[in-house]
Please model this.
Amino acid sequence: MTRVLVQVLLLGLTSLALLHPGVEAQMCDTITIMTETQNSYDGNFTSETLVPLNGLDVVITFDSPLNGLSFWDGGVEKIDDTHFRITNQKFFETGGYVSIHFQAQYDEGTHPNVVSVLLNGQEACDGLFFTTEFPFTNPCPATGMGRYDYAQALCMSILFYEAQRSGHLPEDQRVTPWRWDSALDDGSDVGHDLTGGYYDAGDHVKFGFPMAYTATVLAWGLLDFPQGYAAAGQTEYGRAAVKWATDYFLKAHTAEYELYGQVGAGNTDHSYWGRPEDMHMERPSMKIDSSAPGSDLAGETAAALAAASIVFKDVDSAYSAELLSSAKELYAFADEYRLEYHNSITDAAAFYRSWSGYGDELLWGALWLYRATGDDTYLTKAQAAWDDFSLGEGALQFSWDDKKAGAYALGSLVDPSNTKYADALKAFLTYLKNDAQYTPGGLVFLDPWGSNRHAANVAFISLWAAKYGDPADAAANREWADGQLGYILGDFGHSFVVGFGVDPPTRPHHRSSSCPIPPQSCLHNQWGQNQPGPNPHTLYGALVGGPDQSDGYTDSRQDYQHNEVACDYNAAFSGALAAMVELN
Model:
């Protein structure tokens, strides 16, 4: 992990117990004398910090009296001749090193030594600051909306994305202190700034393909269930979740026919169980370009940027235009240079290969660009993809891999005169109700990996159809989706959402939340992965993989098939929750 030396502005917040003079007259290990005269010296305090620092109160204790203490970046309070507090009201830093510069003035011949530095109430003379008190609590209040508290669940579902953030975290970051700056060197191997974006799941790889799907679907929920987001007070947080991804995609689109689609090697990353803040392995940057293309990756990223451009059109027109311009370039890249991206980014093949091919992304991307631009050229391209790849033959799921069902819904909205979309959507929803497999407890079972995710994805499609589809089917579509979300939120006796409802998961397969602070014990004998208790930090809002076909489920950190979390798991789930808030 890259460490950043920070000039600290200080904020006095708490009343601190003071150490008394009389301890051994030896300078703290964390104090360095920079310059010295007969009656003063310039000192520097530097400490590593394992947690973000949002507001500081520093008390420095000397072993003999001072005449005064100067601190140029804030205020100084003299407590007595040997104790001084330095403060400022503007500090926020997400971690690394903390450095404080001061000048001590004293009578000639005395040379007072610093014998204690209390940093937020903790002795920091040993050079390592951490806290065992975690002020982070669930910021999503109960609202009482709906059969389940859908508004609170939506708030928590969006909050989950803050726990997945990579890069330099913003001042309004809510998931602290166990998440802070990480992977600040991403892209340095190729000379680009590829910091930011989302860690994919319980690991720390940035897989561009599912991240782009995540952004597209989060944007879709914001666009088509805006009243639900507004009623839950989550519109701004939802936009921020989308923007964290799209800011990264703009960085990753480094040339007209170039897009970085992965940072980090899957197997290397997965062999490390620790915090992203402490990573030291190489994180190679991998791209597609005209000589090694990837139509599925470029097409889905184009869809994400186009959908986001609509989200931000009336909020930040300049940013919206930038997103749309990049979306057009990436769609042209996907269409002109055709190949599945795992042939170019070969490391992705074992993790996020698009088994459905790239035809669905060409259709999906074209429909989103038509919705964003109104340019009939994109409807023509959508029709070509539909015909060339036989995309109307039916969908069996909606996921990061297969976008057909989403395209049926979107196409029926943006091209209502072309009834093939509405007909295909109706057939897909009929299949879900009548022909798909179910667990004995009633969860539609479309895939053994992330069964909850797949159920939530199609619940979103069903709720979308309840609002925008055939009015004759609206009640049935809503009722069916309500049953799927009910299973996930607690109908089967426990919640599958971390921190929400009755008996929720406490041991998700998720490295960051499994590591305590300080984190040394996380790596020792693989403690973070294998210890039997709950994760030290609650990963609020994370939807875990879900049960097997017999409703079997164990809250086990080792069971990544059923208890891992991922960005794509929460994307349509968030939209479905917004729909339930809106439609209730």
About this structure: Confidence is low (pLDDT under 50) at residues 1-24. The chain is about 40% helix and 10% strand.
